[in-house]
């Protein structure tokens, strides 16, 4: 009888240990965001004249605009591919060249929130990789 009791306690301890390991493992598996790199070309994607830490795009609607706000600048990244933002947007489901509002700012902003975004700015001797947050702001 004493031996059965020890076996039950041992099985209980092992079960609790396994549950603890599994729960820690599940918490550690949070999905990392994919990363997109877009080139700052100063024609389609450009710095705001009033705030040098904010970038705007040419295809904004009359009542709102998409803003990329700088958070940090990094110099030593090696992206596999740097995308052209104009090509990316105009060939997406968020752009309708035949509609009244050609770009769906809200939908595009929600889509981009799923990614880590870097803007790539070529300087004289270095390349800046600018980590940004995406915002949708109203135009007064």
List descriptors:
140 residues, alpha+beta, 6-stranded mixed sheet, 3 helices, 6 strands, 29% helix, 31% strand, elongated
Using DSSP, what is the number of strands?
A: 6
Main beta sheet strand tally, sense and closure: 6 strands, mixed
Helical stretch tally = 3
Which structural category do the helix and sheet elements fall into?
alpha+beta
Query: What percent of residues are in strands?
Result: 25-35%
Strand order of the largest sheet: 1-5-6-4-3-2
- In angstroms, what is the radius of gyration? 24 Å
Distance between the termini: 81 Å
Mean pLDDT: 80
Q: Can you tell me the overall shape?
A: elongated
Uncertain segments of ≥5 residues (pLDDT<50)? none
The helix/strand series, from N terminus to C terminus, equals HEEEEHHEE
The amount of helix comes to 25-40%
Could you walk me through the main structural features you see in this protein, from its secondary elements to its overall organization?
It is built from three helices and six strands, in the order H-E-E-E-E-H-H-E-E. It is an alpha+beta fold and 140 residues long. Strands 1-5-6-4-3-2 form a six-stranded mixed β-sheet, with helices on one face. It is 29% helix and 31% strand. The radius of gyration is 24 Å and the shape is elongated.
């Amino acid at each position: 009888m004493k031996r059965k009791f020890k076996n039950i306690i041992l099985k209980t301890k092992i079960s609790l240990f396994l549950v603890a390991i599994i729960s820690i493992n599940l918490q550690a598996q949070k999905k990392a965001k994919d990363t997109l790199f877009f080139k700052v070309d100063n024609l389609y994607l450009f710095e705001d004249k009033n705030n040098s830490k904010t970038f705007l795009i040419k295809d904004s609607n009359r009542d709102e605009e998409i803003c990329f706000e700088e958070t940090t600048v990094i110099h030593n990244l090696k992206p596999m591919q740097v995308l052209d933002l104009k090509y990316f947007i105009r060939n997406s489901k968020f752009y309708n060249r035949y509609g009244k509002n050609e770009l769906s700012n809200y939908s595009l902003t929600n889509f981009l929130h799923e990614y880590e975004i870097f803007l790539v700015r070529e300087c004289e001797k270095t390349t800046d990789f600018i980590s940004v947050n995406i915002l949708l702001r109203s135009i007064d």
